Amino acid sequence: MPAQPATTGGGDETLFEAVATDLHEHGYSVRHGALPEDLAASLRTEVAALPAQAFRPAGVGRAGDHQLNRFVRSDAICWIQGASPAAAAWVAWTGRLREALNRHLLLGLFSFESHYACYGPGDFYRRHVDAFRGEANRVLSLVAYLNPGWGPADGGELVLYRDADDHEGLRVTPLQGTLVTFLSEEVPHEVLPAARPRYSIAGWYRVNGSSALRVDPPR
Fold first, then answer.
1. 175 to each of 153, 157, 164, how far by Cα in Å?
2. Distance of alpha carbon 210 from alpha carbon 208, whole angstroms
3. Model confidence over 156-203: pLDDT tens digits?
4. Residue 189 and residue 176: Cα distance in Å, rounded?
5. Taking a C-beta distance cutoff of 8 angstroms, is the pair 201, 115 a contact?
6. For 1-24, how does the pLDDT look when each residue is reduced to its tens digit (9 = 90+)?
7. What is the dihedral sign for C-alpha 219, 13, 32, 35?
8. What share of the chain is helix, strand, coil (3-state, %, to 5)?
9. Distance between CA atoms of residues 23 and 122, nearest Å
10. What are phi and psi of 156, to 5 degrees?
11. How wide is the angle at C-alpha 35 spanned by C-alphas 62 and 167, nearest 5°?
């Protein structure tokens, strides 16, 4: 599973087209330095300043199936509502990415949800997929990293696997500005324990699952 090259220059549209190409060819995309520097810096400043009580233990499953399971994951999360200038800029940027991916790949992406994730030393998220096949909820997963100066000794890599039979995977260092996108139903992944606090944003693009009998909110 080769890593994709870094994106340099050309602006957001060049980046968005490259991400679309990666997804079409591989089902995932790893783009280093993808987040605009000012956006990455403002998001990092915001998440690092959030009080501890803004975070809650992360769970698994949705709605009535949601439950805490510290064997599966041990991180803490804070949902992004777009109220602050940094969050509003993030929502706008991911909205432009959604529009570009719909143009290039015809995915029908309709809504987006995301949260800050904080992994303390030793925290992890065991191997999993982000959506259950055929339920058409989360279509595309997105991870953005907010850790300047992160090196190999710090651990905390995201590991992307080709399929259920892949036990080696591709390791992604959670360095600030790196953007990872992948098909939610297709790519198993996990987060390895880190040696120091690790910040990221996890997000999901969804299709419109509403019907006459069911309203499908973003989360």
1. 12, 9, 27
2. 6
3. 999 999 988 999 999 999 999 999 999 999 999 999 999 999 999 999
4. 19
5. yes
6. 544 444 433 479 999 999 999 999
7. negative
8. 25, 30, 45
9. 31
10. 65, 25
11. 55
